[in-house]
Q: What sequence folds into this?
């Protein structure tokens, strides 16, 4: 015990990893003491993912040494990492969509216990950490946020000594974030070290006691986040000064451009969320936010507004007074409605096609990329090229396959493709999910600029900070119902959080506490 | 590798075919030479090759458009028969007339006949969500029975000594020969033209783009404003129309009348052609020649070395089998899965979260 108390839980000594044409990690060294919560900071492409993959055994370092609990170790596979007591929650989920939550958890374990025993343990972890998740639901019916909970549960089940968390809070309500932090703090107080990767600097300030900052694969600084400001850490990350978002609209309210009234839609069976009488109005020059926890009808709302879902819809969607309900996706685009769904790969973009082809996907009518049904290949390439340049997308050119771009770069391309069509109304979901700080601020700025030119912008996001920074007004969606809009100036975060949890959420919180006590009592017999 | 797979499949077919027929007591190597090599060095056989390849290429081009969009039309055989029957109907109604308008009318009606037959699965799929594989396949058998009924009943040639076949078509109802003194009829250049047109449509038009997007990412297609129903219709009309076109070209060309032996399995073989040609109209032209070779060579092998007629089918089936197998092995890596399948699968997924590439053997 004394030996482990003295030597750090994890120590990296001069870790280097090269890929053809790029050095992902260049002699990275740092320590994480036992029971510490340590932040790993850096922009996308700074080498964080490679580094944690090396620690978790997915990839091997070219040089350097990993010391775990005082002993030099070689971690050849995730399995070896798990047997050392290293758990990881990935940013991208490794889940089989056609299987249930429980089956996915069993698949991720090296020696899964019998099904009933596993279920009892899963329910216990869910209850004690206050996570709500039905072990018998199929993964394909779950929202992004719920999928992430599976990964968290999977890691917690193994009672890890070191838990690596990659962007874990992007899909939680403020209350849930606080709950997660309590969980993490409790884990840390029990001696588990936590390596925490996030772009949300104020969360790191609230949670972490030390931080290592990476830039271009090198350690550029170490700091105590509690003594830094979010701005100073961001500047260390990007290695320059951070641009302020220019002020949003002057507040001079324009005319109502985009009016949704009493919009109802059936959810996709069996687990989709149905929309119930959703109404809101967005004025010219305004950015309107829709907050809410994943899976509360955001995707359905996007699909109904864009026209992808047309079955069983009632209510009206008006753009400058023109009724859009009943029109096709293409007709809505021509009327000036642009949209961008949450999922980039396979929804907003076709991974197997070039960026020029992806420009055709949604910009062909407004940008004249086709005439008389014939593709104007040069125009498509030119438009893709202009998007790449204007939004500084890192790609080899318009011919690059969309799937070859990193998530953040593809998102910049998708947002650029929509914004540069100069739409009257832009509706986007999760515009900066998984995008690094620099690119996120760029995307937000471009939405502000679009609004200033008189467009109405609707941002659906689970990132409340983003909405507070960006929007003039916001409303909260919960179980398919939209709350009354609130002015962002002087808004009560607590109230927003409660709305995000919904009335049902409040009850759930109480039952969770009850369930926790019950689970402890009932432990000997398998639950259900 | 995606282009190498068809070549590997053909080579494997030749090797395994030789071994198989040797084990069965035939001259296996001789059979392969007889079927796949000799016809290539015989100018006369080349006429046969082109004449057989033309309908295969045409049907496969139509099917490939559907397959690209994940619309699995297995009913080309029936659509081919209906195309032939529709054109024959026109021919029988115009037997006593003459004029250069008759043949074009027959061709147009042939195309429409195939489309009507393909419209049944399209309607069922778009309105009731019925699987098009089942409906299109089952309609093949309906088409064959319809053909038999017409041949033995209403359309039987009154002067045909009670044989179940129609009257011979007149000169105005028969395809002209392109090269005088050979078997090469108008259908051969038409098939090439159709494939080239399809290539242009797939690469240069929004319709082709729609088909590819629907096949690659259905949700992105919806986002792009491409309706699922319209894609099903485009796919089945292309497949049915071209199969019907091939049908009437065969009826008015090599057959010169309608007979119960009209369906020769082109509609099924064309599925192999489409995949061997990588669903690309230009590749399909080459693949059609390879499959035509199995027909032509198979026939001559029956007479020269007494190979059973089933040999043709065996070679064709092996080609599809090896093509699918090669494709799987090109796209997936085999891992030995007994010891600990779960962590390995998980590890592979973690390494490449976007696409799980491991397949447990």
A:
């Amino acid at each position: 015990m004394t030996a482990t108390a003295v030597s750090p839980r994890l120590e990296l000594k001069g870790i280097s990893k090269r890929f053809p044409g790029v050095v992902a990690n260049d002699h990275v060294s740092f320590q994480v003491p036992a029971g510490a919560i340590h932040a790993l900071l850096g922009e996308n492409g700074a080498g964080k993912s490679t580094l944690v993959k090396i620690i978790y055994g997915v990839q091997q370092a070219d040089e350097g040494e990993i010391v775990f609990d005082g002993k030099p170790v070689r971690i050849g596979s995730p399995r070896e990492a798990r047997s050392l007591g290293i758990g990881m929650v990935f940013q991208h989920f490794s889940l089989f969509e056609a299987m249930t939550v429980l089956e996915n958890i069993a698949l991720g374990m090296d020696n899964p216990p019998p099904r009933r025993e596993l279920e009892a343990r899963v329910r216990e972890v869910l209850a004690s950490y206050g996570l709500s998740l039905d072990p018998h639901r199929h993964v394909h019916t779950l929202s992004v946020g719920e999928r992430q909970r599976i990964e968290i549960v999977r890691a917690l089940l193994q009672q890890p000594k070191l838990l690596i968390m990659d962007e874990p809070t992007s899909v939680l309500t403020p209350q849930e974030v606080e709950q997660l932090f309590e969980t993490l703090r409790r884990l840390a107080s029990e001696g588990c070290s936590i390596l925490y990767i996030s772009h949300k600097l104020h969360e790191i300030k609230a949670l972490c006691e030390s931080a290592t900052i990476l830039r271009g694969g090198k350690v550029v600084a170490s700091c105590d986040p509690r003594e830094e400001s979010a701005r100073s850490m961001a500047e260390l990350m990007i290695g320059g000064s951070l641009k302020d978002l220019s002020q949003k609209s002057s507040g001079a309210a324009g005319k109502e451009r985009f009016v949704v009234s009493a919009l109802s839609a059936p959810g996709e069976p069996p687990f989709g969320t149905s929309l119930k009488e959703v109404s809101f109005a967005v004025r010219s020059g305004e950015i309107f936010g829709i907050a809410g926890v994943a899976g509360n009808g955001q995707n359905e709302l996007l699909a109904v507004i864009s026209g992808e879902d047309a079955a069983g819809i009632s209510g009206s969607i008006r753009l400058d007074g023109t009724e859009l309900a009943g029109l096709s996706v293409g007709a809505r685009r021509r009327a000036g409605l642009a949209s961008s769904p949450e999922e980039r790969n396979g929804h907003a973009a076709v991974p197997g096609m070039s960026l020029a082809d992806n420009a055709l996907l949604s910009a062909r009518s407004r940008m004249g990329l086709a005439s008389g049904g014939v593709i104007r290949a040069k125009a498509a390439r030119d438009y893709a090229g202009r998007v790449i340049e204007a939004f500084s997308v890192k790609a080899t050119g318009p011919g690059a396959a969309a799937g070859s771009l990193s998530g953040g770069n593809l998102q910049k391309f998708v947002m650029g493709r929509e914004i540069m069509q100069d739409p009257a109304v832009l509706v986007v979901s999760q515009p900066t999910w998984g995008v690094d700080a620099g690119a996120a601020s760029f995307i937000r700025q471009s939405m502000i600029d679009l609004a200033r030119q008189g467009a109405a912008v609707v941002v659906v996001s689970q990132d409340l900070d983003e909405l507070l920074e960006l929007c003039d007004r916001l409303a909260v969606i919960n179980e398919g119902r939209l709350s009354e809009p609130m002015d962002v100036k002087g808004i009560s975060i607590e109230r927003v959080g409660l709305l995000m949890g919904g009335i049902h959420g409040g009850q759930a919180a109480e039952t969770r506490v009850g369930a926790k006590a019950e689970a402890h009592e009932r432990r000997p017999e398998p639950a259900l | 590798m995606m282009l190498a797979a068809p070549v590997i499949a053909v080579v494997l077919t030749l090797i395994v075919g030789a071994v198989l027929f040797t084990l069965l007591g035939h001259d296996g190597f001789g059979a392969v030479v007889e079927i796949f090599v000799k016809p290539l060095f015989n100018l006369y056989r080349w006429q046969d090759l082109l004449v057989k390849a033309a309908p295969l290429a045409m049907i496969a081009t139509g099917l490939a458009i559907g397959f690209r969009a994940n619309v699995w039309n297995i009913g080309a055989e029936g659509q081919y028969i209906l195309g032939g029957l529709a054109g024959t109907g026109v021919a029988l109604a115009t037997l006593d007339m003459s004029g250069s308008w008759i043949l074009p009318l027959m061709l147009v009606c042939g195309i429409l006949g195939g489309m009507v037959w393909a419209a049944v699965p399209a309607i069922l799929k778009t309105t009731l969500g019925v699987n098009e594989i089942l409906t299109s396949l089952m309609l093949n058998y309906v088409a064959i029975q319809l053909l038999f009924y017409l041949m033995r009943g209403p359309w039987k040639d009154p002067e045909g000594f009670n044989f179940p076949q129609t009257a011979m078509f007149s000169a105005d109802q028969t395809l002209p020969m392109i090269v005088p003194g050979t078997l090469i009829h108008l259908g051969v250049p038409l098939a090439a033209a159709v494939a080239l047109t399809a290539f242009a449509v797939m690469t240069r038009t929004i319709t082709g783009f729609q088909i590819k997007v629907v096949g690659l990412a259905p949700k992105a297609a919806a986002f792009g404003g491409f309706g699922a129903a319209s894609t099903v219709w485009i796919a089945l009309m292309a497949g049915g129309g071209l199969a019907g076109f091939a049908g009437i070209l065969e009826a008015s060309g090599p057959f010169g009348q309608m007979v119960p032996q009209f369906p020769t399995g082109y509609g099924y073989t064309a599925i192999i052609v489409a995949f061997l040609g990588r669903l690309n109209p230009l590749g399909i032209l080459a693949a059609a020649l390879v499959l035509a070779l199995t027909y032509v060579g198979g026939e001559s092998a029956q007479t020269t070395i007494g190979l059973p007629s089933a040999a043709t089918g065996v070679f064709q089936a092996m080609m599809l089998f090896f093509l699918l197998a090669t494709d799987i092995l090109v796209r997936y890596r085999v891992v030995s899965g007994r010891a600990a399948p779960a962590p390995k699968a998980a590890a592979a997924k973690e390494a490449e979260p976007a696409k799980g590439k491991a397949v447990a053997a």
